Amino acid sequence: MRRFVSFGPALVVLLTVVAVLLGAPAAVRRIDAARTSARIVLAQATLRDDDILERLNHAVRAVADTVRPSVVHLDVLGTRGDGRSFAGRSTGSGWVYDAQGYIVTNAHVVRGASRISVEFANGRTVEAERIRGESFVADPFTDIAIIKVPRDDDLFPLRRASGVMPRQGERVFVFGSPFGFKFSMSEGIISGLGRDPSTANDFEGFTNFIQTDAAVNPGNSGGPLVDIRGRVVGMNVAIATGRDNQGTVAEGQSAGISFAIPLGTIEFVVDQLIENGTVRRGFMGLSAGGGRGDPTRYIPELKRAGVRVPDVQRDGPAEAAGVRRGDIITEIAGHSIVSWEMLRSVVTSLKPRQAVPVRLWRDGSEVDVTVTLGEYPQQSQLEIPSAGRALTTFGIRFGFFRTDAGKPIVGGIETGSAAERAGLKEGQLILKVGERAVGTWNEVFAAAAEQGLLLGKPVDFEVAETAEQQSSVKSVRVRVPR
Fold it and tell me: Is 221 a catalytic residue?
């Protein structure tokens, strides 16, 4: 009996411990639930009393309401080289530039177009008018084109952030028709400036792109990039993809990096296209030195970078202004210059005969000069590697740009390419492009570009099978694929 009594307190303690172990989790859950309930009530009160997110939503909706009526969806129809039947159809985007009915888009969106249908956000669809007898007018070197619709009260030109320099970190919005989903909107920030994605053009063009992380996909091309005020700051042109991180305009899906043409370039090009159908660009007379090394130089005294001048063209605008070989250019017309591509883009977005302030670093001090620009020579735009990039797109392999009997030789043809379908073959000599006799690949490209090859127009090539058969020639019609 005494032994039994001696176990009683221990049994009570044991039962108590068991009860605590069994009941504690439930108690803890009740306490945690009470705390969670209190947090929910507090959060709901915060959302009710603080309208910051509603104000943000209101602002973003206002951007959409401001921009959407000015965005257009483009349905582009192309023709075969013989002009007899439709061979291709593509879609893209654009935006209303002015009250006269001019609409801006990418040149690659409308390249080769015979007919362009323009759809507005309210559902109205019109056929684009002809401009100077053409479906569109474009500058392929910046990938900018204009089309025109009838002037109407329903036209709402987009406001432009003219003269405003975009800055990294600023919030932006993208509009367009990704994958055919018309009048879509996405959001991001400006993640970089002065970008030069090397494959964003089919040839050497003028770049200085804005980089964003907004979602941009095929079909967004030509759509506007706008700021938080609903003002245009750029135009979608290319994306980087997992397959091609150098920028593509034709295919692939967004990998979080997209590129846009800055408004300054757009206005410079579009105003000239509207006025006279061509674009004249500024020229300083600087040479890249044959591409020998990166000319970017860091200046410790200024704690910033600039571009070293590899060479100065004799009797050119830069030499006349006192620019010397070895100078480091840090600013042109108020734009900071940190790469050769940026220097080239800034200069070519200024007009010939314009007096431009240039800041240099020379012998340990800053020097300011004024350069009166010349006109960028067209032949500089139509030389290798531009010729190589453009005609490689068509499917021609050059074979180190060989010639025979004073005529360029086709080095090879890509299987299944447009060049093969046109009838070009490896080893053929190109005698003429249109009516123009050619002796070099630069001349081939220049003649083809002048006849509209870069804008999708068919161009006739006169070829011979060998040097000995130049008296027996045939004509093949070629065009850069859309």
Answer: yes
Parallel, antiparallel, or unpaired for β 396-397 and 403-404? unpaired
To 5 degrees, how large is the angle CA 137–CA 140–CA 141?
Answer: 135
Classify residue 193 by its DSSP letter: E
Q: Which fold has domain 56-280?
A: Thrombin, subunit H (2.40.10)
Active-site residue, from 73, 135, 139, 143: 143
Answer left, alpha or beta for residue 123, where phi above 0 means left and psi between -120 and 50 means alpha. left
How far lies 303's CA from each of 61, 139, 313, 365, in Å? Answer: 42, 37, 29, 13
Instruction: Report d(CA 12, CA 20) in Å as an integer.
Output: 12
> What is the structure's pLDDT at 419?
78
**Lowest mean pLDDT: which of 5-9, 361-365, 434-438, 476-480?**
5-9
Region 424-428 average pLDDT:
81
Tell me the backbone φ, ψ of residue 109, rounded to 5 degrees.
-70, -40
Catalytic annotation on 162?
A: no
Count of all residues that appear for the chain in the document? 482
Q: Which two tokens stand for residue 185?
A: 């909107």
One fold for both 282-375 and 380-478? yes
Dihedral angle over CA of 389, 390, 396, 400, nearest 10: -40
Show the beta-strand stretches assigned E in 253-310: 257-262, 282-283, 286-287, 296-299, 304-308
Higher per-residue pLDDT: 10 or 73: 73
Q: What is the mean pLDDT of residues 193-206?
A: 68
Phi then psi for residue 246, to 5 deg, are -100, 5
**Averaged pLDDT for residues 249-268:** 81
Q: Flag the least confident range among 45-49, 147-151, 440-444.
A: 440-444
Segments making up each domain of the chain, as ranges: 2-50, 56-280, 282-375, 380-478
- Which fold is adopted by the domain 380-478? Pdz3 Domain (2.30.42)
Q: Which of 221, 258, 339, 345 is catalytic?
A: 221
Q: What CATH class does 282-375 carry?
A: mainly beta
Q: Tell me which residue of 226, 234, 251, 220 sits closest to 91, measured CA to CA.
A: 220
CB atoms within 10 A of CB 224: 30
* List 108, 135, 254, 386, catalytic entry: 108
Whether the model clears a pTM of 0.85, i.e. scores above it, the answer is no
Q: Torsion angle of alpha carbons 316, 321, 327, 329, nearest 10°?
A: -100
Give the strand pairing for 365-372 and 374-375: unpaired
Question: With contact defined as beta carbons under 8 Å apart, do 323 and 360 qualify?
Answer: yes
